What we know:
Mean pLDDT: 78
Radius of gyration: 55 Å
Number of domains: 5
CATH superfamily of the largest domain: Immunoglobulins
Number of strands: 33
Helix content: 10-25%
Amino acid sequence: MSTLLTVILTLIMTTGCVICDGPITFIDEPINGYVDIGEDHSFSCIVSGLMNEKLTWYKDESLMMLNEEESRISEVQNEVSFGNFTTLVIDNTLQSDTGFYQCVVISLAYGGILKRSRKAELIVRSLPSPEYPLCHQSKPDTLLGSTMSMSCVSEKVTPPVTLQFTRNSKSINSGIPMTEKGNLVTVQLTKNTTKDDNGAVYECHQHSSFDSNYHKSCSMKPLNIQYKPEIKIQHTNPVLPGRETILFCQTFANPPVSQYSWKLVPPIKDEDIFVEKTGQTLKLLRPSIKQSGTNITCTATNEIGQVSSSVVLTVSNAIINSDNSYEPSSNTNLNNSQKGIRLSLDVVIIITAGVVIIIVLVVLVPVYHYCLCRNDNTIIVDSLGKEVTQPEVYYETRDGVILRHTVQDRSLPRVPTTEVYGHWRHSTASQVPNDLESHSYTYIDTEND
Length: 449
């Protein structure tokens, strides 16, 4: 009986909806909108054929509960000659206002939805919330060669942001796509650690085309790549008998080496060796030929592990040349003497060059100057046939004073067309080398009455 009643009620409601749905028509429907965050926006809807129905608004398939407390979003309804008019007004838009809006006709009789308008999408252009971006890393302290992952998370907004990884301020994640999950976007970087990563600082930089000046970033802790010690024993080879020798256990490790130990096979007496306080340096106080061939091992230990390295002690009267081959000490003396000879030859060459320079400056330069500037003392004959030798330099005396309006030995005749006499003002002549010409200059000084 109850099942039959349910079927009957369903048929009645369906029939009622069909009957009431017929005359209801959307004359104007809401359309998509884009708005910058903080700006105002509105959707409008006009419906004809309403009788006992109500217009309301849905967002993302949910009824919008408008009340006076939420004054930022309001609804205005009016009746016009051709139908019912409703407007949804959103003031000071927020990022949360992004979504799909619909104008919906609801039956007042039974509260069901009679008709829906098309969906209108509202996109609020904005920047991500101030807390973004967020950086995450698996663990800053990690072992050498292990896999390390880092991620950068931001908010999904319009226009979408770009996330850029940098390592010590250099870009490293070009081409890595962003993944979306819910309202978040993520960029993830995964790599195998190397020694070069030790101390490296990774950052995530966020940019947006919404504001060209916008830039935010987050930083991760410096990486601490840990590894076992690497050992290299520094020593002389071969060791000279009776001369104190130092062996140094050079290590590279992170964290630092906490303990050093030495092992000698066959062992050397304690009074013939000395180990420095830290254990990193071993001294052979009195090495002997008998100790040649001793295997010396240095072991270094840190928190990650323990590593050993060995060398074979060689005690000999010979030394190693540049080709790493052995030569007797007598050859060394010969080389030293040859080096001394080469040094003496260098000194001789320098002295010889100095002597040549002195000869050029002291002898050749004066001779050249004499040949260039000397006077051949050309013999000159005067009007009586008497030989007159010209001096190197002579000066012509200037006797008398040129007075105004007087005719003297150094006066010109009267200048034509004037009553003014011209007087000589002569220059001094000097004898110069024969390959140059002698010149004298004459000036005329005229005066007017």
